[in-house]
Amino acid sequence: MRLNQEEKDMLEGKFGKATQKSMEILTTLGEIFEAENMIEVLGVQIAGVSYANLGEAGLEFLTEMAEDGKVKVLTTLNPAGMDRENWQVLGIDEEFAINQNRAIDAFAKMGIITTCSCTPYLIGNAPHYGQHIAWAESSAVCYSNSVIGARTNREGGPSALAAALTGKTPNYGYHLEKNRHGQVLVSVKAPVKGTDEFGVLGKLIGDKLVELGKKIPYITGIPSATVEELKSFCASVATYGGTALFHMEGITPEYNKYPTPDDVKFEINQKDLESTRAELIDDGLEIDFVSIGCPHASIHEIATLAKLLEGKNVKKEFWVTTARPTKKIADETGYTKIIEDAGAKFAADTCCVVAPIKGRFKGIMVDSAKACYYGRAKNKFKVKIGSIEQCVEEAIK
Ligand code: F3S
Description:
Number of helices: 14
Helix content: 40-55%
Low-confidence stretches: none
Bound molecules: FE3-S4 cluster
Structural class: alpha/beta
């Protein structure tokens, strides 16, 4: 790999131990993926923040890096294992809370903004078209590459931290134009509306891509999509298909930049959507938990929830998972009061997947296909997908 003088100095330890370790991680990665050089990144988002993922070994690595490491670029965190202000109300045990805060403190010491969210693009860690970043959360990686047209690979925890401490990343993968071309033409022949339906579509396309051994779909037939629908789609297609980039005709900014693929193609009709939705509803389901906000809810979704919950009473555990800055807007506008008066709880900084709640509930209802996947796989819940309105109906009945 070609390194410039600054990068060589980092590698030789002239900027301290944490920067040296970071440059070692990045050059090793660059060599594995045959990157020719390093590029500067505008911002970083770090995943693997929950103490449940980090454990003592991860925490030790962070503490060591925090001895002399300081971030060079704007950096935020993925959701942690708990709401940092409201963990008792959500039933998180004290020992976990203490350890989670030790991890967050280590990140803070390095100058990382300790906003824990999987939607950094909604709360100010937002790149523009064509800019290079190093993000780790799969749904956010897919959103930034596809919807914004920024450029990032899906980083692991250590490589994202290394990018934050150096402001660099190896130039390979989705940073290069040659790797951003659509590979499969997907024609959607049915109307798709709502976060749940876009999640179902993401699962359908993701499953098919795995079957075909392809990664980048070029999707036609979607006349319009909201930010919330696209974030749900991104989370789902990344979960089920490992997709970090898609093009959507008339919607994403690079859709007409590269040749449209036509050698591999498939169609999606109403029946396909219905049968995929059925796969996201378990038999013998008893719902005792409803959660909205995977990926983290936007203020728009919170406003919708407030309208649906006004004057009602939820009979089941109900979480609204969001970024703390979004929660602050909800506090100021009065949405929080309406939602909490109905008995629902805010879970900022965390979500129903990364919180340590395995086995605590029997069945979860969500509007997110990604949450269905991890609700089953990680937390051993039975699952049901539905629209945001259906989730509220279930909670109050
Ligand atoms: Fe975000 Fe948690 Fe879903 S990290 S994408 S809310 S699983």
